[in-house]
Amino acid sequence: MDIRQLQYFVEAARLNSFSKAAKSLYITQPTVSKMIRQIEEELGADLFYREGKSIRLTDAGEILLAKAQNIVVSFQSLSSELDSLRKLKQGHIRIGLPPMVGSNFFPSVIGRFHRKYPDVTIRLYEDGAKKVENDVDTGFLDIGVVVLPVDEARFHVFSFVRERLELLVPAGHRLADRSSVPLAELKDEEFVLFREDFALHDRVITECVKSGFQPMVVYESSQWDLIARMVAAGLGIALLPQTICRDMDRSRISIVTLTEPEIPWQLGMIWRRDRYLSFAAREWISFARDLLKER
């Protein structure tokens, strides 16, 4: 059993699919299947239940995954350290971004970084902030952008934006002409939220409960623009960050200041305290910190 076989196994387990793992690793599906079959033959145990096109871990697979993840992360750290010594400013960075963050804050940063360091490649992964935080924690990502706070005993953090959530209601709504609305006044409204893997999902529900009511959630989405369109169509109300609200079509949506309480939205870049970062990743953090000074 070699490190490449373990990398293929971990990726297949992460994605629950041989074909998705092959696509992620830029190899063919038969290669992934062959490598995993070789591990199974060596161990004398099946690692996956194969159910049509879907797969799931067996008990033996769960045991191997717990060990293999640590081995793969350790190997990646070793490779990164050697790569920094060998190639200096060349390298590869894996960065996680929530979808509504990437388009608003990072295109210009990435473009300027690439012009300065053309031999450094950046691979972006778009997921909700909770998934990004978990993937930085496990070592799948080098760096992530998340909604703060996070556990600063585990992560280095620098904050680069601090805003608040604002209320979106459809044009003609009973609250559309108000200058401000306390959160408690929304108890009878229907909410359109981000999905559960987004930090704002839990943040909004928590604040509503603190204000004395459980919000009625009628739709959930991973896309802020779809949430805005749902509000415009009269399907519910939403709470979104000020940055996102600046781009709204005000002819169909009214944006109202939310009060009592204000719900903060603070973004930060995180990376693990106890894990080696390549030169390229450290340079990205320094570069981004200079350009994304907290607003």
What does it look like?
- This protein has helices at 3-15, 18-25, 29-43, 59-87, 99-105, 107-116, 129-138, 199-210, 224-232, 242-245, 279-291, and strands at 48-51, 54-57, 91-97, 120-126, 143-147, 155-170, 180-182, 190-194, 216-221, 238-241, 253-259, 264-272.
- With 295 residues, it is of the alpha/beta class.
- It folds into three domains: 3-85, Winged helix-like DNA-binding domain superfamily/Winged helix DNA-binding domain (Arc Repressor Mutant, subunit A, Orthogonal Bundle); 87-160 and 266-291, Periplasmic binding protein-like II (D-Maltodextrin-Binding Protein, domain 2), CATH 3.40.190.10; 162-265, 3-Layer(aba) Sandwich (D-Maltodextrin-Binding Protein, domain 2), CATH 3.40.190.
- The strands form three sheets. Strands 3, 4, 5, 6, 7, 10, 11 and 12 form an eight-stranded mixed β-sheet that branches. A two-stranded antiparallel ribbon has the order 1-2. A two-stranded parallel sheet has the order 8-9.
- The longest helix is centred in the N-terminal third of the chain and has 29 residues, at 59-87.
- Pfam families: HTH_1 (PF00126), LysR_substrate (PF03466).
- Belongs to the LysR transcriptional regulatory family.
- One of its GO terms (molecular function) is DNA binding.
- InterPro entries: HTH-type_LysR_regulators (IPR050950), LysR_HTH_N (IPR000847), LysR_subst-bd (IPR005119), WH-like_DNA-bd_sf (IPR036388), WH_DNA-bd_sf (IPR036390).
